[in-house]
Specification:
Layout: E1 3-7, E2 10-13, E3 18-25, E4 33-39, E5 46-51, E6 58-60, E7 68-73, E8 78-83, E9 92-99, E10 112-113, E11 117-122
Parallel strand pairs: 2-11
Antiparallel strand pairs: 1-3, 3-8, 4-5, 4-9, 5-6, 7-8, 9-10, 9-11
Length: 123
Amino acid sequence: QVQLVESGGGLVQAGGSLRLSCAASGRPLRTYGLGWFRHSPGKANEFVASISRNGETTNYGDSVKGRFTISRDDAKNTMYLQMNSLKPEDTAVYYCTASSLWIATSQDQYRYWGQGTQVTVSS
């Protein structure tokens, strides 16, 4: 199985940018479809973005389209989430996930989850 560890979270002002990283160990990332979800207190998990095994297809949640970009570097066994034009409503714990499917957008399609990294956007 694969182990996932997120990094890159922190505190940023509205309008700023952050890049999250998800480092994998245990198995090559190229064998997985990958995704990001986020969780805010009192809310359900929200789909953020996903990327196919070959990196050619991406999906985004409506609230982040045009601002966030998901990418993967299988040579480094790492996935990224570039977040631009951040808003206070982007404040959440962000989780990277891995699926045995080619690409997935539902959380129940993801078997492996990282521990999460906190992103806080101040107004």
